[in-house]
Amino acid sequence: MAAGMLAGQVALVTGTGGGLGQAIALALANAGARAAITEMPDRLPLAEQTAAQMRAAGGEALALPLDVTDLTTIQAAVDGAAEAFGGRIDVLVNNAGINVRQPAFDVTEDAWDSVLAVNLKGLFFTAQRVGRRMRDQRPAGGCIINVASIMGLIGYRDRAAYCASKGGVVNLSRALAFEWAAHDIRVNALCPTFVRTPLTAPLLDDPVAGGDILRRTPLGRLATPEDVAAAALYLASPGARMVTGQALTVDGGWLAV
Ligand SMILES: NC(=O)c1ccc[n+]([C@@H]2O[C@H](COP(=O)([O-])OP(=O)(O)OC[C@H]3O[C@@H](n4cnc5c(N)ncnc54)[C@H](O)[C@@H]3O)[C@@H](O)[C@H]2O)c1
Q: What pTM was estimated for this model as a whole?
């Protein structure tokens, strides 16, 4: 991808203290975007380190606190991002997400509510707040990338709430793509396979589960954060200007077989 491809654009990325969010934010910044990057208030120093890394590389970056389960912090983060960078938001990457692994027979109400509150409800209201700005800014338009998972397209053990939330993200992305196309807002879901991050390390270190995942993957390896970031960069790029309402898998072929 060409350096400077996103020059002049403003990107807001949620959940950037590590993992996929950090890699996506760095990729967008390397392509020239000015980046507002968010993190849970108690983890904000991690996002501040990411922002410092971006500024050291010559970019413009700002770390903001955001808990997507709290609509007032969504409003503050979205408005703060736009105000910091000239009133626009061109790209939103809704990356924040959690998982609670439980067999379906044992899923608790608390776990169900937490996973759905972050992964689906919080993601929607962040998209809504940013979408209204994209509708009202001049020129209107923008690109929303919702980080789902292959678990939004297939089922897998011990993650009933997670699969339900990510399936919701995939179809929500289609609904928003349909409704907001009139405002030149593209909305896509990004569906990675397993990536080693703090979220997945316990599972991937389990020889049975880890082996099962690799056996199901024709390319024979996990995805890296950079693999996922490259796909996000594509969706944000001018090359994807006719792409909306899609679920782009980054899965080494898992869903093909
Ligand atoms: N790691 C994988 O294998 C994998 C695969 C497919 C999809 N995903 C998805 O990618 C996204 C990033 O996951 P990751 O693997 O980098 O995990 P991670 O735990 O490293 O990152 C999740 C981020 O979300 C933030 N977050 C959690 N709750 C939040 C809330 N209420 N409000 C705002 N931010 C919150 C965390 O602080 C963290 O920065 C998630 O949506 C996850 O479901 C991950």
A: 0.98
* Domain residue limits, the chain: 10-195+227-245
pLDDT tens readout for residues 158-201: 999 999 999 999 999 999 999 999 999 999 999 999 998 877 88
Taking CA 145 as the corner, what is the angle to CA 156 and CA 201, rounded to the nearest 5 degrees? 40
The CATH classification number of 10-195+227-245 equals 3.40.50.720
Output the ligand 1 site: residues, CB below 6 A.
Answer: 14-15, 17-21, 39-40, 43, 66-69, 95-98, 118, 122, 147, 149, 192, 194-195, 197-200
By annotation, the residues acting in catalysis are 162
User: For 122, what's the count of Cα atoms within 13 Å in the CB-facing half-sphere?
Assistant: 27
